[in-house]
Structure formats: C-alpha cells, structure tokens
Amino acid sequence: MKKIKYPKNWKETYWNIFTDSQKKELKNQWIKLHNKYNFLLYFSNNIKDIITGDFEFITDYFFLFNNIISNISEETKENFFSDLSNLFNYDKYRDAIAKYFYTRITEMEIYSCFYCDIHTIGKYELEEDNSKIKEYRTFDVDHFFENAQCPLLALSLKNFVPSCQICNSRVKGKRDFFEFYGFNNNFTTDQIKTILLYISPTSEVGIFDDNINIKVLPKIDFSKKIGFLENIENYEIKISSSNIYKHHIDSFRLNERYNSITILSEALSIMDLKLKYPLTKIKELKNQLTNIHISEEQIEEIIFRKKYDENRHSNLLKLKKDLLD
C-alpha cells in the first residue's frame, strides 16, 4: 500500500554492494551464458542493466523471459534455470541485499510493510558476546516477481519489496505470479504491465493513498446505535479502490485482514473519538481554555494524534488518515 522511496543514486549504491571481484564474476558468467544460449541475445549483455534496471525495464524482461521459456524444450529449460540460479544466486548475496535496506531505513522510509501497512518493520540492535553491536532486520525481502518463476531477476533491486512475514510467506508465498494477482487469459500482456506499474511498491507510477479509500461501515442488518466499539460486531472495515488497485487489495486479502479484532477495535476507537469530539466540541473546549494559548488545531492533535502518528511513522497511517478526514 506504499511506494518505496529510493536514494537518488540508487543504481550505483546498489551495484556497489557487490565487491569488485563479484562484479567481475557476474559480468563474465553472464557473457558465458549469452554465448551458450542464443535466445539470450534478446537481453542486454551487461548484467548491471538487469540488476539495476527500473521497474518498467524488469517487467518487460519478466514477460520476455516467460515467453522464451514457453518455447524451449524441457531439457533446455531445466539446464537454463540451473545456470541462471547459479549466477543470480540470491542466497549468496542475501545478507548484502538485506543490509542495503536496513542501513537506509530512514532514507527509504522502511517503517511498515509496503504491501499491507499493518505490521511495523525495521531493524533492532543487539550487543554480541564480543561487545560488538549487530543489527537485525524485522522484515523479509520479497521478490515481487517470484524467484523460482524468473531467476533472471533474483538480484534486481526493483524486484525487492521489504515486507512483513505474513504478506511474504503466508499470503503470497511461492504461488504462481499470474495466479496470485488474478491475471487470467482475459488480460492482455499490455494490460497486466499497466496494472503492475501502479500496484508494485517498487514502481514510481501511481500513489496508493490517492486511489484507495478505507471506511468503517455498518453491516446490512444493523440499526445504528450510539457508540462504535461497544457494538463492534455490527461494524466492518471496507477498503475500496479503482479496478487497478483492487488486484492488490484482493491478492493480499486486505479487507479480510483489516477486519481482525485488533485493527477493527482501533478503527472503532477512532470513530468513537470523532463522535465524542465533533468540531463544535473542539470550539467549545477552546473557548473554555481561555487562560491557555491553544488553537483548535492543537486541541485536535491532542485528541486524535494525527501528526504524532505520522511523525513516529506509525503503521496503519492510511486507515487513520481516512477515518479522521
């Protein structure tokens, strides 16, 4: 539900997580594969282009890759996948890739899961036995395009999404990419590419907050009573959007997950505060506090803590923003 903010010089800073010897090995091995498989002529012979390609670039490569492997023999495909997996070996560079993210927590605003905004993510530090401080991440680095389905993009920065374990392992897992996002034969390749540009957290196109709306609604058979939280069983959270973003909402089961008892309780508590402190009440409080120089905006902040939550990079910011607006 959020877009990743990359450093201005992200191509170079990411490429430099690899040592000079690793870069040389990557380049040489890629050239060897180019010479081994003639269909790789459709791809750049410079492996840096793939590893540091922008999202639109790697999306084109994903579809080109899938088109090629659908037209080669099973034996060639097996050998090809094996060679690619050995070269674009995520496990070999896993720690360096993770470090790229957790050393840029503030710069890239990695505070909550980019898929769901439910769970906070980040890093923490522990003092080891040798008195050295070691950093640990509290997030997974998910492959937007599944590694097993397209090993060619296993090291591409714009294919990585810092996410919570629920989104990465339990909801998304290793499911087929097209199946997970609900792309069937009714979708053309161009349609899918357009949708992906909007819903991927690694793309610069589209803004989730401007195209998704979160509301608390009474259930159909409910006759409204005073008080939201005390009637929790009669309310639900509804996330709505345009058709493009609906793919993301449905795939990650956001409507179902946002209606967990914890999130629903928090949402209804906000609704109760709005019910208790309408604008007329805020004005009344200001008039009563004549001896204190305080504005209506400051009173609202004390009650609803909107800026406070934004400044401390709270999770569920979109939910809170929509309910308070």
Order of strands across the biggest sheet?
A: 1-2
Question: How many strand units?
Answer: 6
Instruction: Report the biggest beta sheet as strand number plus sense, adding barrel if it closes.
Output: 2 strands, antiparallel
The quaternary organization reads as single chain
What structural category characterises the helix and strand content? mainly alpha
Q: Averaging pLDDT over every residue, what do you get?
A: 90
Report the span from N to C terminus. Answer: 18 Å
Order of helices and strands: HHHHHHEEEEHHHHEEHHHHHHH
Task: Specify the number of helices.
Answer: 17
Radius of gyration: 24 Å
Task: Note the beta-strand portion.
Answer: 5-15%
Taking pLDDT < 50 over at least 5 consecutive residues as the criterion, the unreliable ranges are none
Given the C-alpha coordinates, what overall shape results?
Answer: elongated
